[in-house]
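G., before I forget:
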Amino acid sequence: MRDRVLIFAGLSLFLALVTYPVWQGLAARSSTAGPVLPATAAGQKCVAPRDVMRVAHMEMLMSWRDLKVRENQRTYTAADGTVYTIDLTATCLTQCHGPKEKFCDSCHAYAGVPAVNCWSCHTSPPAAPNPGELR
Amino acid sequence: MGPLSSAIGVVALIVLAALAGASEPGRVVLGLVIPYAALATFLAGICYRLVQWALAPVPFRIPTTCGQQKSLPWIKSARLDNPSTGLGAVGRMALEVLLFRSLFRNNQAELYERRFVFGDSKYLWLGALAFHWSLLIVLLRHLRLPVEPVPQFVLALNAVDGFFQIGAPVLYLSNLIVLGALVYLLLRRWRDPQLRYISQFSDYFAPLLLLGIAVSGMLMRYGAGADVVAVKRFAIGLATFQPVLPEGLGLLFWIHLLLVSALAACFPFSKLMHMGGVFLSPTRNLANNSRIKRHINPWNYPVKTHTYAEWEHEFHDKIKAAGIPLDEEQKNG
């Protein structure tokens, strides 16, 4: 009889742990909306379509690093023929997306990928780009 | 037949997920109906099995003794391998659950230069330990998806697991270990003739399913990629009963989810229930104190007895007449 108390206590503990996402989500009133990104600068076009960037931006940034730092190739030609200067801070963030705290970090904190090692070399631009500024 | 039919089963699930994931109604079934049904089966099934086990009577102490029992004070007893106290039994269970003590005891006999030799074989223990621990880490890491904000310990686990920062997304060591251990354990089962002889469908199905889950998950992370924000929105929706089907959940994701759902649904009815069963093994979780404490079967009914004293009393005169000595008189005299 004493063992049954232990068994049911253990089972309850297991159920409480397994359903942690459920009761935590209900208690914290988690929403399925996802992070809201700041609007990009007007009239700008990304180096790749949004679907591709969402899934593969990290691979692109790694290949950009290899191209620029290791192969001394400082431009990237997009699929549509546009030529971009390879530069995370000056091209991606300064011209379109704004400071990393508002752009990169919102999704990265949301998805639990905070420890990327971009920022041991790169800096974040201090302010959002002016709308309509030329590339 | 086991390896083939279970492989066909896993491939059929993958094909099913790929077909259903391509259409909108299929995605509703894959993303909303099946996960809820599978999780409900998982939880209800585990409760059912554990309650069944909890209600089974264990009137006596039946531990397997793996060391010297506690006897005289000057004889050294094995306090963890043959515990005589509750605390010792807890220690034994901790060794079993966390470090797989009984697998560590595994040994192997073989003919070596026409001699029969008998020795330790730690590979099963090592493979099982590597597999279970990395599976636990992988499972805990997944908490970053249905929980918002991500708990600190999950972030810490991610950082340790991806310590070497190989590539982007960062390579998780637990992924490599779980894959290697699964492949080793499957090959071991398949290549060893004795082991293969006693292996059945379910012995191959669960590891193959786990292999499918691991490979589809790793392809999502290191191969084709997945929109993690969409996956997280989906996971939160599932966890908080406000289901959504965001754009950008790829085919690999549906395959991964269906395989996980299949694993969860068959979990309570398969050998995977050793997760709960290991805690309820009477041969492991009982203290071996039968010689210290008397355990009386609680549902013993009163047995009608007729003792020698009563019998002697009944035939007192006849025994006396036959000249047979009486216990009664010897005690008194």
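Chain A touches chain B through 41 residues (CB under 8 Å). The two ends of chain A are 76 Å apart (CA to CA).

More on Monday.
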